[in-house]
Write a structure and sequence with these properties.
about 575 residues; alpha/beta; five-stranded parallel beta sheet
Length: about 575
């Protein structure tokens, strides 16, 4: 037995020496090898790949930022999904693939040259009637002093003007309220040729909220809860909509036919002016078109005040322009307005004094009560008789009179760059000297300049060129009749809508390309508006002294704009009976 055991051990050792393992160990090694390769394939398909085969990447919506609208922050607010790991031989790319962005379908419409609306589609939110139509039905409450019902008639144009003195043309003239842009713009939008019900192809999204009419109801005698109610309600409604989630509202825009200070209440003090619509985090993502924008904020943009002229066809505009070219203008300059005795920095008193002393100046003094200054016919007749029309600041930076004068072919004279040059960059040439005269208000205040002598120094041939430039601008400064459409001309509405589309399109492309504007300073917003295409940086500017206004502790413009807004509202009595 012992010998047999020794022989068996010897036999096993001989098999090992010949390299032949026992069958059971061979099976064990084969199993281990199979498990190893199974793990390799498992890791490859389930761990290293963040996007399972056959499952498309889902677009990620924008989150709402509480900061002002700008490219860098829009990009930061975009939550980028994890991308597939690139090959080790290539540098990593953190940008999201273009097809993954929710607005890419809208951008692709630009490439469709056979579609006349490619890149121009507008989606309009179907707001509950409390945000617009109900206000018009209750029009008697839209103003403390003015019965706005007559001014909301005729699609917001107001009652037709009689032409007894032959100052106007035969058709297209209405007694339009200076704060009626809300309803005029909304009715013009209904005639826009590229409306769509598919928000995924929209170049921009319009919010038909009558923001100006809303705040006008509650500016006097109401607490801040009432003043803010509709704005908060609107934002809550919008943020629940799927269209909002695409860009967090950065593709949305709305119109308010009032000055921006009515919507920029700085605190929750009951004595502070206006509501806080433009300071709401969500609203700061939207673009708001106002008749006067803030130089220091990036979410509002100036559009023209409405004039009295609302043509229904191109021919009406051409006839008016030809008539303005042929007029004989017997006055060198003119001014329509009232002094501001309660405003120590106003130059209106000096302007009125200079006009009274001049033999070539026409003056219409405005004040409470009956006055020719409140008559559209008297105002337009004076402007049509003048080569230059003086346009100092009103109760705030801007005034409707500037657009009435240009409509009459009168060259405007501005005394503050905030009255036009930084306000209406979509509608007016950046080279302001081609269509206007600028006299710094400090020169008038310190009696360093004679307005008459300054204007006489301009050669007659230059005056003629400037007047022709003003007349050529007329189509872009007026709002056409919302019940019709101009054939070839672009009006103020068309210019504004295209500017919004261009702004949103640029933002979307910058997001895709990962372009960030890290050096953006919102307080310098007025400087960015003056940059030429391709420019991105701003520096010291000759107009810095005009916009170095006192600031409060929050870095916002101080009480000066708010006080101006109060005076503007009070002085609405001057022009509306």
């Amino acid at each position: 037995m012992r010998r047999r055991s020794l022989e068996s051990n010897h036999h096993e050792e001989m098999e090992k020496a010949n390299g032949k393992p026992p069958p059971s160990r061979l099976c064990f090694l084969a199993t281990l090898s199979a498990m190893f390769w199974i793990m390799i394939f498992y890791l490859h398909f389930t761990v290293l790949s963040s996007n399972p085969v056959g499952k498309p990447e889902q677009p990620v919506p924008f989150s709402v930022s509480a900061r002002p609208q700008r490219i860098s922050e829009a990009y930061e607010a975009f939550e980028l999904p994890k991308m597939k790991a690139p090959p080790r031989s290539k540098p990593s790319d953190t940008r999201q693939a273009p097809e993954a962005f929710p607005f890419n379908r809208a951008l692709r419409t630009i490439e469709n040259k056979s579609d006349p609306c490619g890149g121009r589609y507008i989606y309009v939110h179907d707001l509950p009637s409390r945000f617009n139509a109900d206000m018009l039905r209750d029009c008697k409450k839209l103003s403390l002093w003015t019965n706005m019902c007559k001014f909301t008639s005729n699609a917001g144009l107001g009652p037709p003007l009689e032409n007894a003195e032959g100052v106007f043309s035969n058709t297209g003239w209405y007694a339009t309220n200076q704060f009626a842009v809300d309803v005029i713009f909304n009715n013009r939008m209904k005639q826009y040729e590229c409306l769509t019900k598919d928000s995924s192809i929209a170049a921009a999204i319009f919010v038909p909220f009558y923001a100006g009419f809303d705040i006008a109801r509650y500016l006097w005698g109401y607490n801040i809860s009432v003043r803010d109610a509709a704005s908060l309600d609107l934002v809550d409604w919008l943020m629940k909509r799927p269209e909002w989630n695409v860009m967090g509202g950065r593709d949305h825009f709305l119109v308010a036919g009032r000055i921006t200070w009515d919507f920029r209440r700085l605190t929750d003090s009951e004595t502070d002016w206006g509501n806080k619509l433009l300071f709401l985090p969500a609203a700061r993502n939207m673009s708001m078109l106002v008749v006067e924008a803030s130089p220091w904020n990036a979410n509002d943009f100036g559009v023209p005040y409405p004039t009295y002229f609302h043509p229904a066809k191109d021919g009406d505009v051409f006839l008016w322009q030809d008539r303005m070219r042929k007029l004989e203008r017997k006055y060198l300059f003119s001014f329509a307005g009232a002094p501001r005795a309660d405003n120590p920095i106003s130059i209106r008193g000096q302007i009125i004094d200079q006009c009274k002393r001049s033999k070539v100046c026409k003056l219409l003094e405005c004040d409470f009560g009956e006055s020719k200054c409140h008559s559209p016919s008297s105002i337009m007749q004076m402007f049509q008789s003048s080569l230059f029309c003086l346009q100092p600041q009103g109760d705030s930076y801007t005034r409707r009179s500037a657009f009435d004068s240009m409509l009459a072919g009168c060259i405007p004279v501005f005394f503050h760059p905030g009255s036009a040059y930084i306000q209406y960059t979509w509608h007016l040439p950046r080279n302001y000297s081609t269509y206007s005269v600028f006299i710094p208000e400090d020169d008038v205040r310190k009696q360093n300049v004679s307005i008459e002598e300054r204007l006489k120094q301009i050669p007659p041939d230059v005056v003629e060129i400037m007047r022709e430039r003003v007349i050529s601008l007329i189509p872009k400064l007026i709002y056409a009749d919302p019940r019709s459409k101009l054939e070839t001309l672009e009006d103020a509405f068309d210019v504004a809508v295209q500017a919004v589309i261009d702004k949103v399109t640029k933002l979307r492309r910058d997001i895709i390309e990962g372009r960030e504007d890290k050096d953006f300073i919102e307080e310098n917003s007025w400087k960015y508006a003056l940059l030429e295409d391709g420019q991105r940086t701003v520096g010291p500017h000759e107009w810095d002294p005009f916009f170095s206004k006192p600031k409060d502790g929050n870095g916002q413009s101080g009480t000066i704009p708010a006080e101006a807004a109060k005076k503007s509202w009070k002085n609405e009595q001057r022009s509306q009976a």
